[in-house]
Fold this protein.
Amino acid sequence: MSTDTIVRLPDQSTARLPKVNFITKENGLLSWLLTGDHKRIATLYLISITFFFAIGGALAGLIRLELLTPQSDLMAADTYNKVFSMHGIIMVFLFLVPSIPATLGNFLMPLMIGAKDLALPKINLLSWYLYVIAGCMILYSMMTGGVDTGWTFTVPLSTHYVNTNVITTGLAIFVAGFSSVFTGLNFIVTIHKMRAPGMTWFRLPLFVWSNYAASILMVLGTPVLAITLVLVVLERAFGIGVFDPAKGGDPILFQHLFWFYSHPAVYIMILPGMGVISEVISTFSRKRVFGYTAVAFSSVAIAVFAFFVWEHHMFIMGVSNYSTLVFSLLTMLVAVPSAIKIFNWSFTLYKGSITFETPMLYSFGFMGLFTTGGLTGVFLASTGTDIHLTETYFIVAHFHFVMVGGMLMAFLSGIHFWWPKWTGRMYPEKISQLAALITFIGFNLTFFPQFILGMLGMPRRYAAYPPEFQVLNVFSTAGATILGIGYLLPILYLTWSLKYGEIAGDNPWQATGLEWQIQSPPLTENFPEIPIVDYEAYDYEWLERKEKEVTRVG
Amino acid sequence: MDHISQVLWQFLVKWLTDFSLFPPEASKIAPQMDALFFFMVLISLIGMTVVVLLIVGFSILYGKKRHPVAVQIEGSTLLEATWTIIPLGLFLVIFVWGSLIYFRVYTPPANAMNIYVVGKQWMWKAEHPGGQHEINSLHIPIGRPIQLTLISQDVFHSFSIPAFRVKREAIPGRYTNVWFEATQTGTYHLFCTQYCGTNHSAMIGDIVVLSPDDYRKWLSESTSGMSLAQNGERLFASLSCNACHTGRAGSRGPNLAGIFGSEIHLANGSTAQVNEAYLRDAILNPSEHVAQGYVPIMPTYQGQVSEDGVISLVEYIKSLNSNDRVEQTLNTTTLLPESEGKATTDGQKPGGANPAKQAPASQGMVKQ
Amino acid sequence: MEQQVDTTSFAMWLFLVTEIMFFGGLFCSYLIFRNWYYPAFVAASHQLSIKEGTANTAVLIVSSFTMAMGVWCAETRRKGALVLCLCLTFVLGLVFLGIKYDEYHEKYEKHHVPSWHYSTKSFTDPASDPEVHNAYPDDKPLPLDMARHTEVYFGLYFAMTGMHALHMIIGISILGFMIFRARAGAYTNGHVTFVNNFGLYWHFVDIVWIFLYPLLYLISRHA
């Protein structure tokens, strides 16, 4: 398999990075901090997101260390509560929600549609600053005691019963929310208004479709989170009474408002990842994605249905039994488009010409793990089994399978796939394939035992647990150690590749897509002249013809 | 053996002896839920196998070496329809099956024995109708339907019995309920599963399922005083509920005898089912539950009676089949020190207040 | 250029959609509690000054008119008139905030600010509040449990009008900046997009008030 690769690099003895590119165009810190160039902003995002991911990951390590033993012996109960709360908040709001859209999306969106930049470059920069401000607020909150409400801020616990930095953290997430809204807004406007001539909707790469769907969710859903946080802050600071039963308020109202955003949020997290998978599977099978239209429409269908299922987080909270019928049914419906995508990707492999470079390995990992995570979602969508499984480690396992096994794998797949375009250099293939394998093994060992723990009834957010749960927890912690190594390796070798990686050239993967027809790294203005598109997406035959033409002319 | 460290050896021993993979099935609903669970596991295994086979199979068959030229295929409406309809069909089956179980768990039978559970940071208080109180444990008989009426005194908690496959949130401000019937004696885990602050992990206990004889023994051993209804009767008098709810003709409040379980007509034209939740709400928010033909003069008892007190009052009202007990409280009220200057015969109001006079005046007589 | 105009306009409309979702959460909460505690909402609403509320509504509608005039001036390149219109809008915005401050102050004095020495006396004993009692003599005293729910009304009142006022403050600040730029001729040379888009924002803030006013002020007020 090692000789079966589609990678075609220029002759390394003579190849050089292009002298003029978006990185070398201007020098100096200010040229980066005041840039309007979407590629520079994406780079800024990549660095800050990796930073917060590392902090969130360290917190995860602390959680798993504590759970090695049944007693609460590593840290005080209050500390543990703060650790898992901060882990959730940082991972959800500072990593998962922005990750692919803010990094890969920002970098690739204009390239893929043939534009020179996003529609609103200044808003894009503002988006990054809001993210950084939110991150600083959360760091400040952590350093002054953190919060111990869980990332879900359940009232009345968060409004009346804790003494921690709820208001600071709530406001930080409010700011991060606006960062997200502006990114989504930018994407929607860009895709509607700035496509190159000939780039019709159905010639767009599926990555664009996925980010478009995610952007709709960002734009419509996030403001509801914002107002919910405002109400929590007002309730906590001024006792307005909307969530306080003593004054006639209703804590269940908070649950409805919070989950109205937080459920679409999970689709904000996963849809861009699915976009990456479409691109990678297509490239490494040398085939157009099977059922392009179905995949495109299923992204939009997921975005629409995402808004109609939020009560499935509340099935045991005393809501009307009949309402659970409605939401359970809708949740079953929202699972179907995801299933459609998995099968479409599988059949893209049919009669393809498949190679197994690192991005492809991560994508296969995604398909397996996301399918598991998605199927276990059905266990939870079914109200009868949800009664037993909710609020246990089954839920923890479910969402880590889709978020980490799904989303994070897709993120790594995308980073590796577009790394040569972004930096002009290739990462080292052997070690990256090893890292992918380590990640896959570590992930399964960490989170699969948690399904069993959940079935056994082990509740989530417990610092101490009954002794008969220990063996499974030990497996989980062992897996976490391996997983940590799997995530550390890319940070190391990708940084190494910046100086020592092979020169990639324009199109090392021989991929279709406008971004692969220009130099690596791209010019600041992306295209020397705006391309005119007269071919479909994933047109490998067009690519072949173009190559033959070029060689003939040359 | 010398080469294996002590820690590892202990771990291995534990793995072989103290390691569970599946919770016990100790209630009537547990096997039903497990059947659905295993059906879903089966479907998932099949689904996973199909996907893995497709990925692995195609990767082998169409690897670059073996199949160097890709064949461009647009799609297949037939395949799209297949893998849309089959998963949808399976999910709908699961939906119906799961919903049936859900409704079963959250629709208590009429003959269920009701036990109240109050959750607070960080303990569970169970109150049996006979007056037995337990903290962090629940003793129940095997083979009888038991309904739990749950409420929280502070934040959200969740009462979870994995062995029974039941769980229900305990919410401040409102009752929730769940029911089960134990099928196996033994001691099972009780967990709080909704994060509730510092000692969330310590809010655990035991569910003890006893044979009918053992249960009877336990009941007699643990009664320390009044039953809930008796305590409720005491409160009914000391809070002066009996001043308006005399049960006699012309009283200012409706007769409460036999009211539990009936349908009541409210002053605003709607009807309501008188259950525990209604009674609690009527005590705490009376102006929203004015019965037809009465005026909204009942004072609110919010802040003056604890959740435990409300539970006792509800149980008392539930027990009223006739007005005899209320009559008795009216007669004995004069014996209570707080009743100086209070009326015992109807028509005469405490403090000589006018029947249409508003709540503030009558509030003065309420016992704190 | 046209693409730029088109684009920023689309972006502003999209942003306004997010604002609708933002206020939507508050409106949703309001509707639920109004449905549950209608008598409390009626009594509490009667505590608001209808004079000041109507005045504010008129102020905002006029300010929307002056803003629309401003956009026309920019398009027809009338610099002086544009500056005048923007200044009028600015002043009207300040008038709105001034009246709002007066209302808030009155609420504070009457102990109707949630959890800040909140008092239900005006509702359990309307005679103790002659100003409102004379205006609404048919309003019966509320039982204490219903009177307590007025605190939720005021909580939502401050949250909704406060959030609206915050948007007004942001708008007025941007107006200040615009007046400065307009005097330099930045908007009367063909580049009207900024004024146009700001106009959209200002009209939106006005429309939010047009919803807030009847919902908060006009509950069961008979002629």
Summary: Chain C touches chain A through 38 residues (CB under 8 Å). Chain C has nine helices and no strands. The radius of gyration of chain C is 20 Å. Residues 2-36 of chain C form the longest helix (35 residues).
